[in-house]
Write a structure and sequence with these properties.
The protein is built from 27 helices and 24 strands. By secondary structure, the chain is an alpha+beta fold. The chain has 4 domains: 194 residues, HUPs (Rossmann fold); 157 residues, Methionyl-trna Synthetase, domain 2 (Beta Complex), CATH 2.170.220; 199 residues, Isoleucyl-tRNA Synthetase, Domain 1 (Orthogonal Bundle); 93 residues, Nucleic acid-binding proteins (OB fold (Dihydrolipoamide Acetyltransferase, E2P), Beta Barrel), CATH 2.40.50. The chain is flat.
Length: 736
């Protein structure tokens, strides 16, 4: 059995994850991990929060709290969001844990003893007002490479260039806002120049299998020549080194390991943490972490975004090689490009962003997370920057997940539940079908002829059991699972998911061509065989879609009453190849069905409009609007009145809108209110409510609305209508 170690870049615990992060280093890794587990391979998927460095201290200063409060807040929030999104980490750890600090100091101590580190003096920006040296992220200025005027101290987010902070033009301290001075300080530098030849050979050994963007960026760095790189910083938050033997305390005081050096070691410390937990449960020994990091039989895949390439193709491999002890190197680093949002780059400062936790709050159904996973998977920036749009999210959900995959599953299980109450038994005329199904697969696998000829040369004895529709469907799932798997193996996830959806398309065609709604009346045995085969395909699709839609797959397995096969982090290792088995019939006969439910809810135009309207509204602008004072003359133009609800009903094709007929004291009028998810129509009939009576008429879902119903919302978005404290207040009463 193969063994694969998978890591995703550790996200900074200084803010909430957004969809760009998900598409970069996390969703692709999770799809891959689930796929390999379904293949029966042994997998360890490691991630966690990066909790040190200047990004954390800056966030703490902005929120006027301690760094510990920042990391606790964002670690827990992001961990919860990942769980609801369906990430199947074996462990999601933290770099603030003592075990990580021990591992990082061990590497530092070892490199110092081996002569890989050198103690050098350097010039660095110093803020005289704040009385501190300025780490790179505490400085902003003009990029020396492209002229971008908001470049960071060591890297330009506009052109991607790295440079010494002293080359930054027009530098300003982010602490005091003033121009810093230059002072001398001393730091430990790692001699990466000692690893130049080794890294050149390592990179070129992967010239045939790594992505071109990964190879070219790595080669570019090597071509420039590797130099010493500082691995310590003057900072009070991070992995301290003042307790390491043979270092004068005064020399190490106030210095921590640079976050770029110690964060990647979080993959190793997280593995040790997990193995120790398992060892305490009697599952292996505490030394068994070494099989993941020091066994040549383990293959290591590092998933990252393109801004992290050199750290995982050059710096981390140099560190692993320098440590020795048999540490393995990344076998592949399938870095993705960037995901844009509605044609623009993600920007938290402009509120041009969608945080994962906000998406989950707005779409709480677990399968809605699958809709997001699927949309992102079909737009992954695998070779170039790509784009997420709400319209595409709607189209992917409605036209593909709901109309193709969900439609086949629903129509099959509803038909089986209504007519049989279970997966139907095979009729006597088809009692050998499962055996011949396996023979048909054997024919496909061993024929040695082109795909175009396969279907035309099916042996006659198999045609006595299967009609053309049967053969075409079984061929589609046999061919599709292999092609999807081959794409996944090459980290082409968009193509892999597309192949899986093609199987669902073939399944729908089969259902239409077989017409079981007719044969159940004219030829019941044919209908039983058709629905038996369709139920097999439902189970197959649940497995094949599991890497990208695990919540929907779990729902299908629950309805079928069979074992869940979603590729989740396993409690016990399994070595069966469930992926390839999807082409073969499973033991489903007499399986009692639960009442089927729709897998995917369609996304309405109204929902898309609401989400689009949220983009670009800055938090500061919202606060400013709330705090803006108005005069009594301004308020006098607002006419609030009581009204009695005479009739309430749901608006066709809208989940959120109710149509109300209200008595205003001066006549009746129609108001369209967005409260259908909070109130049933009968709850409102007869109630006295508060309305904005002099609002300009509006048209919603094609219906005219003459006024606005007032309601309050809590922090979770739950609405509560405003009313008077007595129900006998007459309609039309003025609100003062």
């Amino acid at each position: 059995m193969k063994r694969t170690l998978i890591t995703s870049a550790l996200p900074y615990a200084n803010g909430y994850l957004h969809l760009g992060h998900c598409a970069g280093a996390y969703l692709p890794a999770d799809i891959y991990a689930r796929y390999l587990r379904l293949k029966g391979e042994e997998v360890l998927y490691v991630c966690g929060s990066d909790e040190h460095g200047v990004a954390i201290t800056i966030a703490a200063e902005k929120e006027k709290v301690s760094p510990r409060e920042i990391i606790d807040k964002y670690h827990e929030a992001n961990k919860e969001a990942f769980e609801k999104f369906g990430m199947s980490f074996d462990i999601y750890s933290r770099t603030s844990l003592p075990g990580h600090h021990d591992t990082a100091r061990e590497f530092f101590r070892d490199f110092r003893e081996k002569g890989y580190l050198v103690d050098l003096e350097e010039e660095q920006f110093y803020d005289e007002d704040a009385n501190m040296f300025l780490p790179d992220r505490y400085v902003e200025g003009t990029c020396p490479n492209c002229g971008y005027d908001h470049a960071r101290g060591d890297q330009c987010d506009n052109c991607g260039a790295y440079y010494d902070q002293l080359k930054l033009k027009n530098p300003l301290s982010l602490v005091s806002g003033k121009s810093p001075v230059v002072r001398r300080t001393s730091h430990w530098y790692m001699r990466f120049d000692m690893f130049q030849s080794f890294l050149e050979s390592y990179i070129e050994s992967h010239a045939g299998d790594w992505k071109d963007n990964v190879l070219q960026q790595s080669r570019s760095w090597l071509k420039q020549g590797l130099n010493e790189r500082a691995i310590t910083r003057d900072l009070n938050w991070g992995v301290m080194i003042d307790d390491i033997p043979n270092i004068p305390p005064g020399k190490a005081k106030g210095k921590v390991l640079y976050v770029w050096f110690e964060a990647v070691l979080g993959y190793i410390s997280a593995t040790k943490e997990l193995i120790n937990i398992l060892a305490e449960q009697g599952k292996g020994s505490s030394d068994s972490w070494k099989k993941w990091w020091q066994d040549p039989e383990t293959r290591y895949i590092a998933f990252i975004g393109k801004d992290n390439i050199v750290f995982h193709t050059l710096i981390f491999p140099a560190m692993l090689h320098g440590k020795g002890e048999g540490y393995i190197l990344p076998d592949n680093v399938p870095a993705n490009e960037f995901l844009n949002l509605e044609g623009q780059k993600f920007s938290k400062s402009r509120n041009w962003s969608i945080d994962l936790r906000d998406f989950i709050a707005d779409f709480p159904e677990p399968t809605a997370n699958d809709s997001l996973r699927y949309t992102l998977a079909m737009n992954l920036p695998e070779t170039k920057d790509s784009d997420f749009t709400w319209k595409d999210f709607q189209a992917r959900t409605n036209n593909e997940l709901a109309a193709i995959f969900g439609n086949f599953v629903n129509r099959t299980l509803q038909f089986a539940y209504k007519n049989f109450g279970k997966v139907p038994d095979l009729p006597k005329s088809s009692k050998w079908l499962t055996l011949f199904w396996k023979n048909l697969i054997s024919y496909f696998e061993s024929s040695g002829i082109s795909d175009n000829e396969l279907l035309g040369r099916v042996p006659e004895e198999l045609k006595k059991i299967f009609n053309d529709n049967d053969i075409n469907l079984i061929y589609a799932v046999w061919k599709g699972n292999r092609e999807a798997g081959a794409f996944y193996e090459r980290f082409r996830f968009r193509d892999g998911v597309s192949e899986t959806m093609n199987i669902a398309r073939a399944a729908n065609k089969y259902f239409n061509d077989e017409e079981p709604w007719n044969s159940i009346k004219t030829d019941p045995e044919k209908a039983e065989k058709t629905i038996y085969i369709c139920c097999q395909l439902v189970r197959s699709l649940a497995v094949l879609f599991a890497p990208v839609t695990p919540h929907a797959s779990a729902k299908i397995f629950d309805t079928l009453g069979i074992e869940y096969l979603t590729g989740d982090s396993p409690k016990d290792d399994k070595s069966e190849d469930y992926w390839l088995q999807t082409a073969l019939p499973a033991d489903l006969e007499a399986s009692k069905l639960k009442e089927p439910e729709l897998l995917f809810a369609k996304i309405e135009d109204e929902t898309v409009s609401v989400q689009q309207a949220k983009l670009g509204v800055k938090i500061e602008e919202k606060v400013k609007d709330v705090q803006k004072l108005i005069s009594i003359e301004d308020f006098s133009g607002i006419h609030l009145r009581t009204a009695k609800v005479l009739k309430a009903e749901k608006v066709h094709k809208s989940k959120k809108l109710l149509k109300l007929l209200v008595d205003t004291g001066e006549g009746e009028r129609q108001i369209i209110a967005g409260i259908a998810q909070h109130y049933e129509p009968e709850q409102l009939t007869g109630k006295t409510v508060i309305i904005l009576a002099n609002l300009q008429p509006a048209k919603l879902m094609g219906l005219d609305s003459y006024g606005m119903l007032l309601a309050a919302s809590d922090k979770d978005g739950k609405l509560s209508i405003l009313t008077t404290d007595t129900e006998d207040m007459p309609p039309g009463a003025e609100i003062h």
